[in-house]
């Protein structure tokens, strides 16, 4: 009997890391570039990331196939190693809370999969969210069979583990990632019988301007296209995998032609033998940490939700900045630029000073960001899912993989029980209520719930997950009851005692937290004092019809930082404050001593206050992060 | 099963064994448990709670929770994130992995 010991877990000892100017969440290109740039301007920076080394998904691992830009990122990583950035690896952020003016807490679990047992609270004066993206999935019959993997997942496993899901791997879905994945899999020795793209590539031609100013993107496509051609990998456009065959694993797939709306054309199915399928339909920004704080979102051209940011990458909640895919999927070069831009702008905000060098740097970064963003939007528009994709679902297709909810049950909830949105479907069927909290099935359930009546191709998908990862109750219990409660009620959640679905241990998942955290938003609306640098432009997506707005949108623009907190003159703070635990189980952490990191590495250096001599963040010729090569 | 390993990756002398349902599986330093299992041609190491269907790694980046496995007796570990260590005993997780708690 595959059993497990049912011993209770040891109580969790949490600790605080205090005194940072900036907490950066995510160590991909955006977060790493942002952290290094901020440190270069004199900020003390904590960089939290779930992986054990920086790079995010694109610069993941050390596989032989060094991705484009790998050398530039290696240089950035080397700079970070000698900088004032505390890289907190294997930290899984589950919540960000705003404790007051220029006061934020970032809550994280530690360990390779968050099971490390030492919850951490990082306190900082500003937060840069660079959490990246996850793959968007549209279900089809057979997609739960072993051997069907995410296209990005196959890429990630290849980059970090040097393994393939099978010997003959069909690559399917939509988006530019597919070509890159197919070319990596083929280079690693897999046969790729077909790349199946639901859209065409002609959509790019509708945006000649975006293409013209981003010639490197055309080169990139030509590179992957050429590699596939050399390996004789056929690319089928306007087609989709509409069924996977096999009993316990993939044996073949059926590829069917699609009409303009992604409806399968009857009688065009062709069976292709394979033992694995790598599938994905573009990327979705990971924004739940920000939406939990009330940040406004916008609809991107391909039907995902991204954070609204202003010209300096600040979200609609002052003090919370966003860069990279969280602000709209656009690739590593855009992410890098946005991360650096956000960091420089945050440094200006915190210091209240803008020198000519920093002004020029901001202008250059914004130009570069705008140019790359135009291409990202063109690309997104070309791969937006068609409304008719739900036609390839049979009633017995599992839509929600965690809770095993079929399309038939979702349709029943819509047709017979009157559900009109994903949340109602969830309450009626449990779709989206499992471990992944609807990350995988959210788009599909939204589409089915709307029944093709939504104006866009993909109706709004709720991304409200007050807990970004499952959190052991012990981690909540380790939080001091008096703290965090004011703005989030997080401490109160520790008393909910909610268990995960199916009794999967003492975890709290978002479903139970929803109610407790309802209505928690930002207390924005601080005055926008001018410092000479002001964003006069509209935020991205202001014209987007579905952009959700907080009730009183806080003003954009760089504000004055209040005096004593400014960079370089702030008082030294105790870098480590042990969390005050309720109860007295076991010895607490020694006062003022940072406990060793769970993975055994040396504890990061405590945040140093900037020396008075380094107080000028805008000194001319100041260190700048190396710019990624673009052209 | 060496064919599943990407070319250019030598049979590392530092390779070590873990076990999957009692049989040995080679793993390379730095590989996750999921990668080691893929390397051995194993793509399923969990059965679902409702239908008892086989599942393995799907998203590969810790987001989908489909790759849950019982590792050294502890259920619900994300195999795509947890690094393989010499001697790790991985077992197929049935359902929520806590059948022992049933009354």
Looking at how many chains there are and whether they match, the oligomeric state comes to heterodimer
Percent of residues in beta strands of chain B:
25-35%
The count of DSSP E runs of length 2 or more, i.e. the number of strands of chain A, is 24
What would CATH call the homologous superfamily of the largest domain in chain A?
FAD/NAD(P)-binding domain
Radius of gyration of chain B: 14 Å
CATH class of the largest domain in chain A: Alpha Beta
Distance between the termini of chain B: 42 Å
Average pLDDT taken over every residue of chain A: 78
Number of strands of chain B: 8
CATH class of chain B: Alpha Beta
CATH superfamily of chain B: 2Fe-2S iron-sulphur cluster binding domain, sarcosine oxidase, alpha subunit, N-terminal domain
Please describe the biggest sheet of chain A, giving its number of strands, its sense, and whether it closes into a barrel: 8 strands, mixed
Helix content of chain B: under 10%
Radius of gyration of chain A: 24 Å
Q: Indicate the mean pLDDT of chain B.
A: 88
CATH fold naming of chain B = Ubiquitin-like (UB roll)
Question: What level of helicity do the residues of chain A show?
Answer: 25-40%
């Amino acid at each position: 009997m595959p059993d497990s010991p049912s011993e209770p877990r040891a109580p969790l000892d949490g600790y605080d890391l205090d005194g940072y100017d900036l907490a950066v969440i995510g160590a991909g290109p955006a977060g790493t570039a942002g952290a290094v740039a901020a440190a270069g301007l004199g900020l003390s920076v904590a960089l939290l990331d779930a992986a054990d080394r920086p790079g995010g998904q694109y610069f993941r691992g050390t596989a032989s196939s060094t991705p484009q830009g790998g050398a530039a990122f290696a240089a950035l990583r080397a700079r970070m190693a000698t900088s004032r950035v505390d890289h907190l690896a294997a930290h899984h952020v589950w919540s960000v809370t705003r404790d007051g003016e220029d006061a934020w807490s970032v809550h994280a679990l530690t360990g390779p999969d968050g099971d490390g047992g030492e919850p951490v609270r990082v306190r900082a004066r500003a937060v840069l969210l660079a959490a990246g993206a996850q793959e968007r999935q549209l279900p089809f019959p057979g997609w739960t069979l072993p051997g069907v993997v995410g296209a990005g997942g196959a890429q990630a496993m290849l980059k970090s583990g040097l393994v393939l899901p099978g010997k003959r791997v069909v690559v399917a879905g939509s988006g530019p990632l597919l070509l890159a994945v197919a070319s990596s899999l083929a280079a690693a020795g897999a046969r790729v019988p077909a790349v199946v793209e639901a859209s065409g590539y002609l959509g790019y031609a509708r945006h000649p301007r975006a293409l013209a100013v981003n010639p490197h993107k055309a080169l990139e496509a030509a590179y992957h296209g050429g590699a596939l051609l050399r390996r004789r990998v056929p690319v089928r456009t306007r087609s989709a995998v509409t069924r996977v065959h096999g009993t316990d694993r993939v044996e073949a797939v059926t590829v069917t032609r699609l009409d303009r709306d992604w409806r399968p054309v009857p009688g065009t199915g062709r069976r292709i033998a394979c033992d694995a399928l790598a599938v994905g339909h573009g990327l979705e920004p990971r924004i739940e940490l920000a939406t939990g704080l009330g940040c406004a979102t916008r609809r991107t051209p391909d039907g995902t939700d991204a954070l609204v940011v202003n010209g300096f990458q600040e979200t609609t909640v002052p003090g919370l900045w966003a860069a990279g895919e969280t602000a709209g999927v656009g690739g590593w070069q855009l992410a890098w630029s946005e991360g650096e831009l956000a960091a420089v702008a945050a440094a200006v905000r915190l210091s209240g000073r803008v020198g000519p060098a920093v002004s020029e740097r901001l202008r250059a970064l914004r130009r570069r960001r705008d140019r790359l963003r135009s291409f990202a939007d063109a690309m997104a528009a070309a791969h937006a899912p068609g409304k008719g994709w739900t036609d390839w679902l049979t009633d017995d297709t599992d839509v929600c993989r965690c809770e095993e909810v079929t399309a038939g049950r979702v349709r029943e909830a819509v047709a017979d029980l009157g559900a009109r949105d994903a949340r109602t479907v969830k309450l009626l069927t449990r779709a989206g209520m499992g471990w992944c909290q609807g990350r995988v099935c959210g788009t599909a359930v939204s589409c089915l719930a709307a029944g093709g009546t939504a104006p866009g191709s993909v109706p709004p998908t709720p991304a409200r997950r007050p807990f970004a990862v499952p959190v052991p109750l012990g981690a909540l219990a380790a939080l001091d009851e008096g703290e965090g409660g004011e703005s989030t009620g997080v401490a109160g959640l520790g008393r909910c005692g909610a268990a995960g679905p199916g009794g999967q241990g003492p975890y709290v998942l978002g479903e139970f937290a929803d109610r407790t955290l309802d209505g928690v938003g930002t207390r924005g609306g601080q005055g926008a004092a001018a410092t000479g640098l002001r964003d006069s432009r509209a935020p991205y997506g202001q014209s987007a019809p579905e952009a959700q707005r907080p009730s009183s949108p806080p003003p954009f623009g760089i504000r004055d930082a209040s005096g004593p907190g400014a960079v370089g003159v702030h008082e030294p703070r105790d870098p480590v404050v042990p969390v005050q635990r309720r109860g007295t189980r076991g010895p607490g952490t020694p006062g003022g001593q940072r406990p060793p990191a769970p993975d055994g590495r040396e504890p990061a250096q405590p945040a140093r206050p900037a020396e008075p001599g380094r107080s000028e963040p805008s000194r001319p010729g100041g260190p700048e992060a190396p710019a990624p090569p673009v052209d | 099963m060496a064919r599943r390993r990407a070319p250019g990756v030598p049979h590392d002398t530092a390779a070590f064994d873990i076990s999957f349902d009692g049989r040995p599986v080679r793993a390379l330093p730095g590989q996750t448990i999921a990668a080691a299992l893929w390397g051995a041609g194993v793509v399923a190491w969990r059965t679902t709670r409702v239908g008892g269907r086989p599942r393995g790694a799907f998203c590969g980046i810790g987001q989908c929770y489909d790759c849950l496995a019982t590792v050294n007796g502890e259920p619900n570990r994300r195999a795509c994130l947890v690094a393989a260590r010499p001697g790790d005993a991985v077992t197929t997780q049935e359902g929520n992995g806590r059948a022992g708690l049933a009354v």
